[in-house]
Amino acid sequence: FLQMLANEGTYNGKRILSPSTIRLMTTNQIDKSVIRYSKDDLGLTFNIATKEGGASSFPWNPGTYDWGGYWGSNFWVDPTSGIVAQIWSQDPGAYYRELSRRFFVMIYSALVNP
């Protein structure tokens, strides 16, 4: 599913979602005055990193979209670097804890040309 999103709606050469649907999902759909907890934009189902930064402690590339669950699951798609990543945990609030931060750092530090 995430690879299909990263491929702008295609997976294994087959179109699953239209490019316009992907754009709706990954561009801001909520007025900033409604979002009190974050500087991120909100698309249809995703947080979207902006140049202003965001609610998380991760320095996302602008345009990166992500979502996390209460028990520590999280995914992100970074169109700038081509990264699609998931982390799963059974620890409430783990998204904002050390495990997720280390996972993020490990992935981005492994890039040859970030």
Account of the protein in words:
The protein has 114 residues and is α+β, with helices and mostly antiparallel strands. It has a single domain, classed as DD-peptidase/beta-lactamase superfamily (Beta-lactamase, 3-Layer(aba) Sandwich), CATH 3.40.710.10. It contains 3 helices and 7 strands. The chain has helices spanning 2-6, 19-26, 98-109; strands at residues 10-11, 14-15, 41-42, 47-48, 65-68, 74-78, 83-87. The chain has a 5-stranded antiparallel sheet with strand order 3-4-5-6-7. The protein is globular.
What structural keywords apply?
114 residues; alpha+beta; Beta-lactamase; 5-stranded antiparallel sheet; 3 helices
Count of domains: 1
Rounded Rg: 14 Å
Q: N- to C-terminal separation?
A: 24 Å
- Give unreliable regions as ranges: none
Largest sheet: 5 strands, antiparallel
Note the overall shape. Answer: globular
Main sheet: strand order: 3-4-5-6-7
Determine the mean pLDDT: 81
CATH architecture type: 3-Layer(aba) Sandwich
Q: What level of helicity do the residues show?
A: 10-25%
Number of strands: 7
Q: Helical stretch count?
A: 3
Task: Please write the string of helix (H) and strand (E) elements.
Answer: HEEHEEEEEH
Strand content: 15-25%
Structural class: alpha+beta
Spell out the CATH superfamily: DD-peptidase/beta-lactamase superfamily
CATH class: Alpha Beta
CATH topology title: Beta-lactamase
